[in-house]
């Protein structure tokens, strides 16, 4: 009888715990961050731990890539577009209890743009002329030239606000204003965060979050199956996702990243200056065959250089739909003697596997390719810097980077004065509706010029316990934002 009483008591305790709801989470990550200071390191793994969790900026990215208020509740832009006035939230404190005010913003932005700055994205701050504290809750940022993208720039993890007292130790003991505080870092294993009970915003549902570092795909699979991790937002073994999809204990979360994967084309190379040949290449490509063959079916087809999850995205895949007959007709007209192009492939699987598929697709319409497999250092030297290539495959992972097409010296050497004027206008426009219109015109223009072969947006493939809600589907920035994550009752 004693044993039965104990069992009943244990059952009652378990039921009470279940009713209270789970409020801790273990998150799997492939790479361990080299440090925890997003203002002093380029590694994506840093932001995957700290962005929106520990550190916050004046603005922040939403799950759809939109720019939303962060530590700045609102902001105004002067008529000449040169001065942004940010109105800070009241009552915000750093995790050490000190108040966050305009002086901290001045310090953070001046530190990021200083000559000796170690910020990995100094270009975000290059246009700042001055940063002034108008009062404790108001900051005026004056630019050297209008930049309608400035609130977007301030949403990057590299632009978070830090305090002078703790900035120098952020790499190992980060102190921010976010909904979670740093607790411990056991190097080689995990980082643990705890809920910040003094947070200025809505309290997160989670009381504790542990980021576990598991680089081996087989170990990642085993950890998910065993329940050692509750979610793996960037799961490293896409070939096993079918097993998770078939298991009701799990949700497979498939979205897109900022990675436009393209068949980059040297627009100044012999033969490729002819738009008919570039158009023929585009219509020779069967995107779905590449996605299935190189990416296990994961990826979103794109027809221009823009992320599908962005509110300004236009679906232009029809502009370069798979049409081998059209490709053959264009080539018969533009290159009747046949064509051989050099295809340089960097190491990622999407490039190596995708390159073999594209080579076969091009051969089917009459274009031969000479494939060279390059290591990254060689690719950077020969292709990116040297522009010594015809075609290559690479994923451009910087957010909202369609402006690279306005740089004639960029490695695919697209030189279009009308496009450059469009981007110049976009850079000085702060009105949201006008920016949308200009972004959409830009997408159409490069699609119509067949600057590159637009393949697919890299997928964000994640696995999570089916009871977890609120994880980001897409990756407008490299982050595991836990502010809206909870367990279903």
Could you list some keywords that capture this structure?
single chain, D-Maltodextrin-Binding Protein, domain 2, 2 domains, 7-stranded mixed beta sheet, 4-stranded mixed beta sheet, 29% helix, alpha+beta, 13 helices, 489 residues, Dipeptide-binding Protein, domain 3
Overall description:
With 489 residues, the chain is α+β, with helices and mostly antiparallel strands. It folds into two domains: 23-249 and 466-489, D-Maltodextrin-Binding Protein, domain 2 (3-Layer(aba) Sandwich), CATH 3.40.190.10; 258-459, Dipeptide-binding Protein, domain 3 (Roll). It has helices at residues 2-20, 44-50, 102-113, 150-153, 217-226, 241-245, 275-284, 287-295, 324-334, 349-365, 376-385, 417-427, 432-448, and strands spanning 24-29, 59-61, 67-69, 72-77, 83-88, 128-135, 138-143, 180-186, 190-195, 208-213, 231-232, 250-265, 300-301, 339-345, 367-373, 391-396, 453-465, 468-469, 486-487. Strands 11, 12, 13, 14, 15, 16 and 17 form a seven-stranded mixed beta sheet that branches. Strand 14, helix 10 (349-365) and strand 15 (367-373) form a beta-alpha-beta unit. Helix 8 runs antiparallel to helix 10 and helix 12 packs antiparallel against helix 13 (432-448). The longest helix is centred in the first third of the chain and has 19 residues, at 2-20. The two termini are 33 Å apart.
